[in-house]
Design goal:
The complex is a heterodimer of chains A (176) and B (578). With 176 residues, chain A is of the alpha+beta class. Chain A folds into 2 domains: 6-81, Alpha-Beta Plaits, CATH 3.30.70; 89-154, ACT-like. Chain A, domain 2 (Alpha-Beta Plaits). Chain A has helices at 20-30, 59-71, 98-103, 105-113, 134-145, 167-175; strands at residues 6-15, 35-42, 48-57, 75-81, 86-97, 117-121, 125-132, 151-154, 158-161. In chain A, strands 5, 6, 7, 8 and 9 form a 5-stranded antiparallel beta sheet that branches. The radius of gyration of chain A is 20 Å and the shape is elongated. Chain B has 3 domains: 3-197, 3-Layer(aba) Sandwich (Rossmann fold), CATH 3.40.50; 208-362, Rossmann fold, CATH 3.40.50.1220; 379-555, Thiamin diphosphate (ThDP)-binding fold, Pyr/PP domains (Rossmann fold). Chain B starts with 5 loop residues before the first strand and ends in a 23-residue tail after the last strand. With 578 residues, chain B is an alpha/beta fold. The relative contact order of chain B is 0.11. The chains are: A alpha+beta (176), B alpha/beta (578). At the A-B interface, helix 1, helix 2 and helix 6 of A face strand 7 and strand 10 of B.
């Protein structure tokens, strides 16, 4: 198995119980592995939470960690996928001074070309929202940095897999 | 927690509800789970539960230990000898944090245990209240599961889940933290045993093909070797295991926690693997053609250098925990499931075999180990008592029927190497965590769970002083445990490493010890000290004959070493005999 470090998207289906974040992050922390991004939300199944984490490690490590995650009582199922096995997005917000919008015509072009969206404009500032892949957001960030950014924030990755997950079937089988 | 998460069978749920306080509900849950003894220490945040324990003292026996760590180790000892869930209880803050060592020990040694902690009132959570500590956060990495209760109505479901999780599948410790207001709150109590949790698969399904593939490998093997671990004991698979090895004629070695699952005297028992295990099974691990691991996890103390561990062998792993498969050693065939079922299922697929020539190799290597190590340990001619001859005397006088509870260090290795076991669940020791101070309180729990069995604690002078206060528990509860302290006035194992690897720089390993006999007598425990070989037999005799608790200090040679030994980083086949 490959020892080379790669980016993996980890999808974890769990119960929605207090303390699970601690339990899951401890698995990475114990092995001195940094979590690149993390997102928790409802999933396609009622009362089931879905976590998306991005981590960089070897496939061998990844497999063992999936085993440790699935071992947790309140974890229903965990998967890992490579970049080409998922459809993934991130989203980000830029807060920028409003006068730049009128004084720097270039900004309007950048917004248009990057498929970003203006969320709000007022006298003091305007806010741009952009969803896309990491590289697209990085590019937009580089382009806007030149003009000065008041605030910037970016979400963790969210992803769906190209393959079926079959969690619902699994849960039904467990509930018989 | 939502009710949809647990599965409860209706058949057990016929009783009607009754209105009780949260604390009384906790007692009722314990009774419903068959708990009749628990170990603990009271304090502010758990007082309502203790008040109920007072009312229910004819049904449930609370043992007041002298430290909360002692309560967890006692609960562990209870669980290890009985196979039942051990229960420990403590207050919030320091009471709860004092449980952590025992919980971590139970986690790494797969011991079923439920710990109950009191917590400050829910309105005070997060305010740095008196004796508030985030025990859920602290215990998370060392528990199989934990949960905080802030409403009395949650108690039945959480307690049912706690016992189910602790005992099912690969067992482990569970912690339930209950705020003080939830203990006072009244609610309509009804108990339903937990029979399943939708997100939790305690025992993975066994694949028929894996059984066939494993049987095929075993049947065609010329030099098979079994290494079994605690999985055989936890799965109560001793009979199935014995049937398998006898039919297939496979030499079988054990890990420290697997000890006693097969009688020491059994023909196919070839001894202990690992750092201070026996010479033959370690060396021959690197000569076998099929290595069959049963309910063990390839601990680094077992494998030595992984780069040279059993590289020539096909590996079969019988295992209940999917996370253990391929974790350390790449397996060729993994047989998932409970050892009792998988071993029973493979038995008819196995061919009868003897492997006489292969077996002879173990005997030849045993002869070498006997001449170089065992003879000197058990029949020493030089001055100074050896730990080995003490164990030999205990074997003789208990006829191998005793449960041996050992602490951690040189005496532990000697106890595991030389104790003779006729019965399963007889070797109670801290294997994975290596917790000094484990033995004295664990022996209390073991003796209380199995009052008909002789329980002998073998402890070093270092570890003994880590939990020596539990002599108070032994005295108050009149627990007839036999305590043997092998005193070499050193932290012996560390000293041995300093001698071998740090040019004899004995940094902080020499101990100036108190009068142990006087301390035992201070607790009104019969006590004696032996310093010479001539006095050993009579002293052990007197100890075993004693009806009550008994303390025996034995002065052993100061700088004795445990051999054979696989130095850290060395290969199992490069085991040193001297």
């Amino acid at each position: 198995m490959s020892q080379e470090n790669k980016l993996y998207t980890v999808s974890i289906y769990t119960e929605n119980n207090i303390g699970l974040l601690n339990r899951i992050s401890a698995i990475f922390q114990r092995r001195h592995i940094n979590i690149e991004s993390i997102n928790s939300s409802v999933s396609e199944i009622e009362n089931v939470t879905k976590w998306i984490m991005v981590v960089k490690l070897s496939e061998e490590q990844m497999k063992k960690i999936i085993g440790q995650i699935e071992k947790q009582v309140e974890v229903i199922k965990a998967y890992y996928h490579t970049e080409d096995e998922t459809i993934y997005q991130e989203t980000c917000l830029f807060k920028i001074k409003s006068d730049l919008l009128f004084n720097e015509r270039q900004i309007q072009n950048i917004i248009k070309e990057s498929n970003a969206r203006i969320v709000t404009v007022n006298k003091a500032f305007f806010v741009i929202e952009k969803s896309g892949r990491k590289e697209e957001i990085d590019l937009l960030h580089r382009e806007l940095t030149v003009f000065g950014i008041m605030q910037f924030t970016r979400s963790g990755r969210i992803a769906v897999t190209k393959d079926e997950m079959q969690i619902s079937t699994m849960l039904k089988a467990l509930q018989h | 927690m939502k009710e949809t998460q647990t599965i409860q069978k209706d058949s057990q749920n016929t009783q009607t509800t009754e209105r009780v306080s949260g604390s009384e509900a906790i007692i009722k849950c314990l009774l419903a789970e068959g708990v009749d003894i628990l170990y603990g220490y009271p304090g502010g945040a758990i007082m309502p539960v203790y008040d109920e324990l007072y009312k229910y003292q004819d049904k449930i026996h609370h043992v007041l230990t002298r430290h909360e760590q002692g309560a967890t180790h006692a609960a562990q000892g209870y669980a290890r000898i009985s196979g039942k869930v051990g229960v420990a209880i403590a207050t919030s803050g320091p009471g709860a944090t004092n449980l952590i060592t025992g919980i971590a020990d139970a986690q790494i040694d797969s011991t079923p245990m439920v710990c109950i902690t009191g917590q400050v009132g829910s309105h005070l959570l997060g305010t740095d209240a008196f004796q508030e500590t985030d025990i859920i956060g602290i215990s998370t990495p060392v528990t199989k599961w934990n949960h905080q209760i802030t409403k009395a109505s949650q108690i039945p479901e959480v307690m049912a889940k706690a016992f189910y999780i602790a005992k099912s599948g690969r067992p482990g410790p569970v912690l339930v933290d209950i705020t003080k207001d939830a203990q006072f709150e009244e609610f309509d109590f009804k108990y339903e045993k937990c029979t399943g949790i939708r997100s939790y698969v305690p025992v993975p399904k066994t694949d028929e093909n894996s059984l066939k593939a494993a049987a095929e490998l075993i049947n065609t093997a010329k030099k098979p070797l079994i290494v079994w671990g605690q999985g055989v004991i936890l799965g109560e698979a001793e009979a199935e295991f014995k049937a398998v090895i006898e039919k297939a004629g496979i030499p079988s070695a054990w890990t420290i926690l697997g000890a006693s699952a097969l009688p020491t005297a059994h023909d196919l028992n070839v001894g202990m693997v690992g750092m201070h295990g026996n010479y033959a099974p370690n060396v021959l691990t690197n000569q076998c053609d099929v290595l069959i691991a049963v309910g063990m996890r390839f601990d680094d103390r077992v494998t030595g250098n992984l780069e040279t561990y059993a590289k020539q062998a096909k590996v079969i792993h019988f295992e209940i925990d999917p996370a253990e498969v391929d974790k350390i050693i790449k397996t060729d065939v993994a047989v998932m499931g409970n050892s009792k079922e998988t071993l029973a299922a493979i038995l008819p697929l196995l061919k009868e075999n003897k492997h006489a020539e292969w077996h002879q190799k173990f005997k030849d290597l045993y002869k070498i180990e006997y001449d170089k190590v065992i003879k000197g340990d058990l029949h020493p001619t030089k001055e100074g008592l050896t730990m080995g001859e003490v164990l030999k005397e205990i074997n003789i006088q208990t006829k191998g029927d005793a449960a041996i509870v050992s602490d951690v260090g040189q005496h532990q290795m000697i106890a595991c190497r030389y104790a003779e076991f006729n019965k399963t669940k007889s070797n109670i020791t801290s294997g994975g965590l290596g917790t000094m101070g484990f033995a004295l309180p664990a022996a209390i729990g073991a003796k209380m769970a199995a009052p008909d069995r002789e329980v002998v604690a073998i402890i070093g002078d270092g570890g003994y002083q880590m939990t020596i206060q539990e002599l108070g528990t032994i005295f108050q509860q009149k627990v007839p445990v036999k305590i043997v302290v092998l005193n070499n006035e050193f932290l012996g194992m560390v000293r041995q490493w300093q001698e071998l690897f740090f040019d004899k720089r004995y940094a902080s390993t020499e101990m100036v010890n108190p009068d142990f006999v006087a301390i035992a007598k201070g607790y009104y425990i019969d006590a004696k000290k032996v310093t010479t070989r001539t006095g050993l037999k009579a002293a052990v005799e007197e100890m075993i004959a004693s009806d009550g608790p008994y303390f025996l200090e034995i002065r052993v040679e100061k700088e004795g070493n445990v051999f054979p030994m696989i130095p850290t980083g060395a290969s199992v086949s490069d085991m040193r005999l001297e």
